């Protein structure tokens, strides 16, 4: 039986534009721009400089602390190492590579002699060296999630919900690459020492569920597919855990707090490819869609490909296009231009034409309470909005703004058209800044007291 979670909304999924279109390979770009920050954690340090020759799969960025390495996605010559615009806003140090179109593979890319004979430690090391991060957009380093969960995690869940409207990359992977998904699940089962892995898929992807079940039966794989009721944000980690296990992740906690670990469908494919072929993350499937795109498509391209080339491959943008979004319409980030590169977390690039502009001049709360009903985190968005507008930081924190997963369900349902999600992003930053300021003041006071003691 299909399962569900608390709250949520039912947006039109708008997936029909691309869900029957096979993943197309984009013609190789003449130049890629690879940002040194494509993961949760500190940016990588570039390992190459202008003039260096690089090959596909060669490590070009090294991480320190929490992070994941970054690799060249084409072979060629490094044209520059300099700040370039990227999808998170502003500029970030990037490695610019002129493609020589020779497609030379780096000697660093080595397939294990027998992938099935690898130890758990060896598999985790491969995942780390392959630079795998949450490919659904969260970009949390996968090796950290695995190594931190071994021994604690009893339920491994693959996120096949793909609940954001328009995006169809995971659905197409289920139809076109089910062997990679099931293979990745088997390696995850081995790494966590669990008897089975559960793939949660919304029940609007029945052909995807059938394709996965066929491979599971053929391979007698320790994997089950759990159909889920179609409701946004079913693909939120916490919502998925609740729908599958019936348990709720505690406020401020992670899925590991209830013994769960969640991996995206395309992350699972990346794990399979890294363990069987040694190839790190150098390519990405991106859904290019929205009313501003002439011919929406699912495209696969090297990491670092300029987004403008993706739009060109889809017939270009319509003249009436007024908005670009990196990611889905609910959680994605609006972009000033298409002069940004595809990164590891880029699942979609959307363009919207003028007639879809729903912004109003004076957004007003009419106290209808619909946002409260919709919030999957049991928050009261109307009060969070009020507190942020009045700069009431303590009240914001007491109202659990830090538990907001920025899913956008409240903003979607709000008849007053308030900019709720954006306001909560700002509000969360204000709470973080206030906490940092308080900590710094406490440290300064402690240092002053100690200095006074010494002088006395
Ligand atoms: S849905 Fe919008 S208008 Fe209704 S209570 Fe919430 S913030 Fe106010
Ligand atoms: S954006 Fe935050 S407040 Fe709004 S529904 Fe999602 S979790 Fe709740």
Which secondary structure elements does this structure contain, and how are they paired or packed?
Blueprint: E1 24-25, E2 31-35, E3 45-46, E4 53-54, E5 59-62, E6 70-71, E7 76-85, E8 91-99, H1 120-129, H2 142-149, E9 155-160, H3 169-176, H4 178-192, E10 197-202, H5 206-219, E11 223-228, H6 237-245, E12 260-264, H7 265-277, E13 283-289, E14 297-302, H8 307-313, E15 321-326, E16 333-335, E17 348-353, H9 370-374, H10 381-389, H11 393-398, H12 409-413, H13 420-455
The structure holds iron/sulfur cluster (2 copies).
Q: Would you kindly provide a written description of the structure presented here, covering whatever features stand out?
A:
This protein is α/β, with parallel strands linked by helices and 456 residues long. Among the domains are: 115-277, Rossmann fold (3-Layer(aba) Sandwich), CATH 3.40.50; 370-438, no CATH class. It contains 13 helices and 17 strands. The strands form four sheets. A six-stranded mixed sheet has the order 1-14-13-17-15-16, covered by helices on one side. Strands 2-8-7-4 form a four-stranded antiparallel sheet, with no helix packed on it. Strands 11-10-9-12 form a four-stranded parallel sheet, sandwiched between helices. The longest helix is centred in the last third of the chain and has 36 residues, at 420-455. It is globular and about 60 Å long. The model has no long low-confidence stretch (mean pLDDT 94). The structure holds iron/sulfur cluster (SF4) (2 copies). One iron/sulfur cluster binds at residues 365-371, 381-382, 385, 413-416, 418.
